[in-house]
Write a structure and sequence with these properties.
It contains 18 helices and 36 strands. Strands 20, 22, 23, 24, 25, 27 and 28 form a 7-stranded mixed beta sheet that branches. The protein starts with a helix and ends with a strand. The relative contact order is 0.06.
């Protein structure tokens, strides 16, 4: 009987042990990407360490519990929900692994999913880019973590930056820098975070990928008043760039203590003459940029044994948020015990300069101090002899230093706008424009009035949308891609004049179009849904049924089209227009710098040669601590109107904050005679002065010719010589001043507003292409050709390469 009882207890324990298990199950959403890790009759003791699968990311969605009782048997389940994220479609094979539970370690069996399709995260490009691919051990180099995401889908960040930087030592990430670019007709955000890092030991370093959660807005769910945005959280993960860390060259100087960077060593002895018992302070200060965490202290100093030495602890200070910019100072107090002249030993500090690729040694020469005997005091209270009478000294009264004017913050924006004039291409064009026959002027006037009537026609957007819809449907007939469906929805909304940012099918006035819209939504956002086979034919027939009238000829004779300048003057007198013109300035003064930036950026896009809009956009960017881009737009405002004092003031401030000055602009900021003359006008202005000079030369030569044939009185000769002299001086001055602008005088000139990389071909894929560092403030000429958001630049030294359009700011376009 005892044996039966033991066997029964053993079986009961075995059944209980078998009941505790952890398995993967499908989440039941009909999407293989949704998985659940189910703990039966146990709970996770810690966060499960999921296996690492190349190209696959597990996004944790939440935890739930469940209890079921079947035939008096109770089962408790803890469910962890995950969503698989990958960029290429395919099955995911999850290997077996072990998890820690409150009942001990349990092995999770292997699991294979169905075919997982890439989600919306496949449109996000996350990159981790080092400033240099090859560095020295201990060299501080920049790191940029960037995100390229569509503006229409990006909502906000779902969390902070997750990154394990080891074996790199890094600073804190900066605030995000946001720029906009256009790719395939779609506006995208280029978001950049910056930091600096260094590696302590040589070898090949491949940092872990940077990971960050993003919230994406993927259309709407619900109907009517119950519609709400559909927000999905995805994880963006960067690549793992390879960084080669070179060992420092050998042999190293004896005074080398491991410092790598750029440093300065200063020494100060106060006072250099003292009496016995009076303290002398010897201060050493080391400052600069480098691997400060590896610098243990200052070099040792040698002094005579006739001094009592008081050595407090060295003081180390760094700038806020910057680990690699610092100062280390140490004050040694020397108290002399004997009189005499003493020499304080020389001090040497060696460091490795990565820019020069060599060791540098800073040597502080020895200093001399004179110690006199201590003053003697009388042993008795004897009055000293009365000194000879001296005239009373008049105390010197010094006025305090004048107060300094405050600097360092952006000034107020400038009201209105002022576009820089464009010079004529030749003197013939100028004369031909001025002396055109009245008939040509009349024909041109009527032609411009007709063009203005077409532009002001309220039905013009509908006609253009109808034409684009026809082209889109022809493209969809060959291939039903996502971009084509989005373009169809956008132009359909314009055709029916729907002003809603994200219209739904119910807002369309025609049932046929509503059905087409719902089918397009289902294909775009549904699960493995496709367009019906006859969708393109039905959409083509629906488009043909919509008739949009053409432009009426009588609109040409309307005053707003026939006399647009008078109509513009009348609009300027309307209070609402004045209010709209000052809206960005009001937003700026109210502290809403983002709204002001958007308005002025739109004005710059419409009129790139409006220097006031450029200047105000620079102020709005500066208020948001985006000094790199602010300095670029300040440069454009300066070269378009260098004589304006606000533009020059803002340019100096922006350069001091951004940390760069373009080579082409630097000579113009000096107080040299040529720079002073060049700043009197912009390059376009000097073009006009050159044309005027050429005209004066022509007038002078004409008068001399007439005088030679005795067709004019003799005094015309003096007028001719004056015109010739004025024309030659004006023309030479204009050419010289224009030449002072260098590359900044070219209409294709652009400025790189933040440090990045110059590529041989327009891609960031891991290819065998050659790249080089592109410094902030570099200027080049933009090629007319672009490729998917990339532009080709040519630099003054002949170097060419590709860079993203979001990294540059054109000066004139």
């Amino acid at each position: 009987m005892h044996h039966v009882r033991y066997i029964f207890c053993f079986l009961l324990l075995a059944i209980t042990a078998l009941a505790q298990r952890v398995t993967w199950v499908d989440a039941g959403t009909r999407d293989p990407a949704d998985l659940q890790l189910v703990f039966e009759d146990c709970e996770p003791a810690a966060t499960p360490e999921l296996p690492q699968i190349p190209g696959v990311t597990f996004n944790y969605r939440g935890q739930s519990t469940q209890t079921s009782i079947i035939n008096f048997s109770r089962t408790d389940r803890t469910i962890l929900s995950y969503r698989l994220q990958l960029r290429t479609p395919g099955r995911v094979d999850i290997p077996a692994f072990t998890v820690k539970t409150d009942e001990g370690d349990i092995t999770v069996p292997a699991y294979s999913t169905g075919t997982v399709q890439p989600g919306p995260e496949s449109d996000i490009q996350a990159r981790l880019r080092p400033g240099k691919s090859t560095v020295w051990a201990g060299e501080v180099f920049p790191l940029i973590y960037s995100l390229d995401v569509a503006k229409r889908t990006f909502s906000n960040f779902g969390g902070g930056i997750e990154w394990e930087p080891a074996p790199l030592l890094i600073e804190d990430w900066t605030k995000p820098e946001v720029a906009e670019s256009t790719r395939n007709g779609e506006t995208r955000y280029n978001i950049a975070f910056r930091t600096r890092a260094y590696a302590q030991t040589p070898g090949t370093v491949q940092p872990q990928p940077v990971r960050q959660l993003l919230n994406l807005s993927l259309g709407t769910i619900g109907f009517g008043l119950f519609q709400q945005q559909r927000i999905e959280q995805v994880a963006a993960e960067t690549d793992r760039p390879e960084i080669k860390v070179q060992p420092l060259p050998k042999p190293a100087p004896k005074s080398f203590g491991g410092a790598v960077g750029q440093f300065k060593l200063n020494s100060k002895v106060v006072p250099q003459s003292a009496a016995v018992g009076e303290p002398i302070t010897w201060t050493l200060e080391l400052s600069g940029t480098g691997n400060w965490p590896d610098i243990s202290g200052l070099p040792a100093r040698a002094v005579s044994q006739d001094f009592q030495v008081i050595q407090p602890q060295a003081k180390r200070s760094t700038e806020e948020g910057k680990l690699f910019d610092g100062t280390l100072s140490e004050d040694v107090v020397l108290v002399p015990t004997k009189p005499g002249t003493y020499s304080l030993g020389a001090v040497e500090f060696s460091y490795f300069d990565p820019k020069a690729g060599a060791y540098q040694t800073v040597r502080i020469p020895s200093a001399s101090v004179t110690v006199t005997a201590a003053p003697t005091t009388p042993r008795f209270n004897v009055m000293p002899d009365e000194p000879a009478a001296t005239p009373p000294s008049v105390p010197e009264i010094k006025a305090p230093a004048p107060a300094q004017n405050p600097i360092g913050i952006p000034r107020d924006p400038i009201a209105g706008g002022e576009a820089v004039g464009v010079p004529f291409g030749s003197l013939r064009q100028l004369l031909g424009t001025g002396l055109a026959p009245l008939s040509v002027v009349l024909v041109l006037w009527l032609g411009l009035a007709t063009r203005q009537a077409r532009r002001n026609d309220p039905l013009r957007p509908r006609r253009e949308a109808s034409q684009r819809l026809a082209a889109t449907l022809n493209r969809l007939r060959a291939s039903s891609d996502r971009t084509g469906l989005l373009n169809w929805q956008q132009d359909a909304a314009r055709l029916w004049q729907l002003n809603h940012a994200a219209p739904s099918a119910d807002t369309l006035p025609d049932e046929t179009w509503r059905t087409l819209w719902r089918e397009a939504d289902k294909a775009l956002y549904g699960e493995n849904a496709a367009l019906p086979s006859d969708w393109v034919d039905r959409a083509t027939a629906a488009l043909a049924a919509v008739k949009v009238p053409g432009t009426a000829w009588w609109r040409t004779l309307q005053p707003r089209n026939l006399l647009p300048f008078l109509f513009a003057v009348m609009l300027a007198l309307v209070p609402s227009s004045a209010k709209a013109a000052t809206a960005p300035a009001e937003a700026y003064r109210a502290g809403d710098f983002t709204v002001a930036e958007q308005a002025w950026r739109k004005a710059v896009n419409e009129r790139p040669n409006d220097w006031i809009a450029r200047h105000n956009l620079s102020l709005a960017l500066a208020q948001q601590e985006r000094w790199g881009e602010a300095a670029a737009h300040a440069t454009a405002a300066f070269v378009q109107n260098p004589h304006a004092e606000p533009a020059r003031w803002n340019l100096s401030l922006a350069y001091s904050k951004a940390g760069y000055t373009p080579n082409a602009v630097a000579p113009l900021l000096d107080s040299a005679p040529l720079a002073d003359v060049a700043r009197l006008a912009s390059p376009a202005g000097w073009d006009r002065w050159f044309i005027i000079g050429c005209a004066l030369i022509a007038v002078g030569l004409l008068l001399l010719l007439l005088r030679g044939y005795l067709l004019v009185p003799g005094w015309f000769g003096w007028v001719a010589m004056a015109a010739l002299l004025a024309g030659i001086v004006g023309g030479v001055t204009a050419l010289t001043a224009r030449h002072a602008y260098g590359l900044a005088a070219d209409p294709q000139a652009v400025i790189v507003w933040r440090a990045g990389t110059l590529y041989s071909i327009p891609t960031e894929a891991d290819t065998a292409q050659q790249t080089t560092t592109l410094a902030a403030g570099a200027m080049g000429l933009q090629d007319e050709k672009t490729f998917l958001g990339w532009v080709k630049l040519t630099f003054p030294n002949g170097q060419t390469g590709w860079v993203r359009q979001s990294e540059i700011v054109p000066l004139y376009r």
